[in-house]
Design brief:
The chain has a single domain, classed as 60s Ribosomal Protein L30, Chain: A (2-Layer Sandwich). It is 36% helix and 16% strand. Helix 4 runs parallel beside helix 5. The protein is globular and about 50 Å long.
């Protein structure tokens, strides 16, 4: 377990008893490398992640998928597949956001998941499948961090529920993808403050901060 997780206020009976990276390996989620995933913020209009000293971490959304969703089972499955791919990308992004500055934290220090917002592209005013599409994202997230609809759950029960989140799933948008979820997680304030004081609150990193952390690799 992460050292910040061990020192957190999470009740003992609600703590994970597994290494998050073991599940990531079983799920086959690629984690990339420092050179691939730790980039400069120069020229960027938005951040991929923002840390707040309270411990909240805000991850920007990512849009993927084949396009307009409608109430056909096969089309819903295509949207769910895109949701799983988005989760994999966000888990990878969060890993590097937490680890690139060598403050001592990693994905095992995610205490719990707070909120997800899933926006589903559908021009059909009678489309009812937005929650089902976003379930692809939520279930994959729970597979990593714990939850009753994740791949490691049995009869709706998992060892831990730190991947379960409050959520909105909304259809009716236009776009060239199927859905765009975003998510908020909680880490310990101690870790958040260590990250912010060492390299700032934003990921990717401002150029000077990127050069600073590169020297640590």
């Amino acid at each position: 377990m992460g050292k910040f997780y061990e020192n957190s206020i999470v009740p003992k009976e609600m703590r994970r008893d597994y290494d998050v990276y073991d599940r990531i390996n079983k799920l086959g989620i690629p984690m990339g490398s420092f050179d691939e995933d730790v980039k400069s913020l120069a020229g960027a209009g938005i951040a991929g992640a923002v840390f707040h000293e309270s411990g909240l971490v805000y991850l920007s959304g990512l849009g993927l998928g084949p396009g307009n969703m409608y109430d056909d089972p096969d089309r819903i499955k295509e949207g769910q597949k895109a949701g799983r791919e988005i989760t994999d990308s966000m888990v990878r992004r969060l890993h590097w956001a937490l680890t690139c500055g060598k403050e001592g934290g990693d994905l095992n220090d995610v205490l719990y998941t707070v909120k997800a917002l899933g926006m589903v592209v559908s021009t059909d005013v009678h489309f009812f499948g937005a929650p089902a599409v976003v379930n692809g994202f939520s279930a994959r997230w729970q597979s990593v961090f714990g939850g009753g609809i994740g791949e490691f759950a049995k009869d709706g029960t998992d060892q831990n529920y730190s991947g379960v989140h409050a959520r909105s799933a909304i259809g009716g948008f236009t776009g060239r993808f199927a859905l765009e979820p975003e998510i908020i997680v909680a880490i310990s304030p101690e870790l958040a403050r260590a990250i912010i004081s060492n390299r700032g609150w934003v990921f990717p990193l401002p150029p000077a901060q990127l050069e600073k952390v590169r020297k640590l690799t």
